[in-house]
Design brief:
28% helix, seven-stranded mixed β-sheet, Rossmann fold, six-stranded parallel β-sheet, 26% strand, single chain, globular
Length: 354
C-alpha cells in the first residue's frame, strides 16, 4: 500500500482543494478501505457553493463524498464478517450511540449520528478511508463498484417508497426527474407500482425517465398552475395517484402533489427547499392526505444490493460522466452545471473501471 491518500477537501464556500492526508488506521470495529467509486451528490455541490445546508455549516476543512464503494485492505481486531479484498458498498450514516432511535430502527434520526461529508464529519472522497465495519456491505460478484456507490441514492428512493407505502398496484406521481426522482422511479417500479408518472422542466431528464420505466411524463412549464398540472397527471393516469413523491423542494411542486394525490393518499417530501412554504393545507385536510417527510434512509442497504444483484433494478444508465480523482474540481463543475445525471469519481488510480 502506497502513501498516496489524495483527498477532496472543502475549506470554505467555493474553496475546493485536492490535498494529501494521512492514511487512517482502523479501530477494532472498523475497516480501512481503498476507495474505488464515489458519486457526487447535490449536497456535496451545495456545501461547495454555499458552505452550508440548513443548520449544517462548514466551519473547518471537510472531505466531501458519501456515495461510495471500495475494497477492504485492513480490518480491525474485532471485525469478523469482512476480510481484505472484499468489495463493499458503504452506508455513510453510522449511529454513535444506542439511543431510542437506534433501538426502534430509526437510527438515521439519532441526533448524534455520524454522517460522511456532513459537518463536522469527513466524507469518503479520497484514496483511503476508514469506516464502521457494520455499515460496510459486501457486494456480490455481479454488482459493480459503481452500482455499489449508487446504493446510496437508490436507498433514498427505497426509503421514500417505503414511507409512501408503495406496493403492488400503486399508482405514483414523482415530482422531479433529477437523480433522486429517477431512483425513486426505479424503486417504485421494483416495489410493484403499476403506473408511474414523472414531471420535470427538462425534456432530456424526462427522456431518461421514460427509458428507465416511467409510464408517463409531464413537461412542466413555469407558467403552469399547480391545479392544471395536477389535472394533467390525473388525465394521464386515468385516476389520481395513490402516492406522490416530491423530489424537487420547490413550493409549486409540493402544491401539485397535494392537488394531484387521491383522497386518503400519501405525499412523501424528499426534496429540500425553503424552510417554509405556502401549500394548500385545507385541500390536504379535506382529502385526509398523509404528508410524510424523510431524512436520508435506514435499513436499506441489503434490499438495495439484492435489487441490483437480481437485476430487478438497473442504475447503470444514471452514470453519465466519469473523472479520475485528480480531476475532482472539473467533475464538481460538471455536476454543478447539471450537464449530466450522476458524475462518478474514480479513486483507485490503478482501476478506473466501472
Amino acid at each position: 500500500m502506497d502513501k498516496d491518500n489524495l483527498s477532496v477537501v472543502l475549506h470554505s464556500t467555493g474553496d475546493l482543494r485536492l490535498e494529501q492526508r494521512p492514511i487512517p488506521e482502523p479501530g477494532p470495529n472498523e475497516v480501512l478501505l481503498q476507495m474505488h467509486s464515489v458519486g457526487i451528490c447535490g449536497s456535496d455541490v451545495h456545501f461547495w457553493q454555499h458552505g452550508r445546508i440548513g443548520d449544517y455549516v462548514v466551519k473547518n476543512p471537510m472531505v466531501l463524498g458519501h456515495e461510495a464503494s471500495g475494497r477492504v485492505v485492513k480490518v480491525g481486531s474485532e471485525v469478523k464478517h469482512l476480510k481484505p479484498g472484499d468489495r463493499v458498498a458503504i452506508e455513510p450514516g453510522v449511529p454513535r450511540e444506542v439511543d431510542e432511535f437506534f433501538k426502534t430502527g430509526h437510527y438515521n434520526l439519532s441526533p448524534s449520528v455520524f454522517f460522511c461529508a456532513t459537518p463536522p464529519d469527513d466524507g469518503s472522497l479520497c484514496r483511503y478511508y476508514k469506516h464502521s465495519a457494520s455499515f460496510c456491505y459486501k457486494l456480490p460478484d455481479n454488482v459493480t463498484f459503481e452500482e455499489g456507490a449508487l446504493v446510496e441514492p437508490l436507498s433514498v428512493g427505497i426509503h421514500a417508497c417505503r414511507r409512501g407505502g408503495v406496493t403492488l398496484g400503486s399508482t405514483v406521481l414523482i415530482c422531479g426527474a433529477g437523480p433522486i426522482g429517477l431512483v425513486s422511479l426505479l424503486a417504485a417500479k421494483a416495489m410493484g407500482a403499476a403506473q408511474v408518472v414523472i414531471s420535470d422542466l427538462s425534456e432530456k431528464r424526462l427522456e431518461m425517465a421514460k427509458e428507465l420505466g416511467a409510464d408517463f411524463s409531464v413537461t412542466v412549464q413555469r407558467e403552469d398552475s399547480s391545479r392544471d398540472l395536477a389535472k394533467k397527471v390525473e388525465s394521464l393516469l386515468g385516476e389520481q395517484p395513490h402516492v406522490a413523491i416530491e423530489c424537487t423542494g420547490v413550493e409549486a411542486s409540493a402544491q401539485v402533489a397535494i392537488y394531484a394525490t387521491r383522497p386518503a393518499g400519501v405525499i412523501v417530501l424528499v426534496g429540500m427547499g425553503s424552510e417554509t412554504a405556502t401549500v394548500p393545507l385545507l385541500t390536504a385536510t379535506f382529502k385526509e392526505l398523509d404528508i410524510r417527510g424523510i431524512f436520508r434512509y435506514c435499513n436499506t442497504w441489503p434490499v438495495a444490493i439484492a435489487m441490483l444483484a437480481s437485476k430487478k433494478v438497473n442504475v447503470k444508465p444514471l452514470v453519465t460522466h466519469r473523472f479520475p480523482l485528480e480531476q475532482a474540481v472539473q467533475a464538481f463543475e460538471t455536476s454543478r452545471q447539471g450537464l449530466g445525471v450522476k458524475v462518478m469519481l474514480k479513486c483507485d488510480k490503478n482501476d478506473q473501471n466501472p
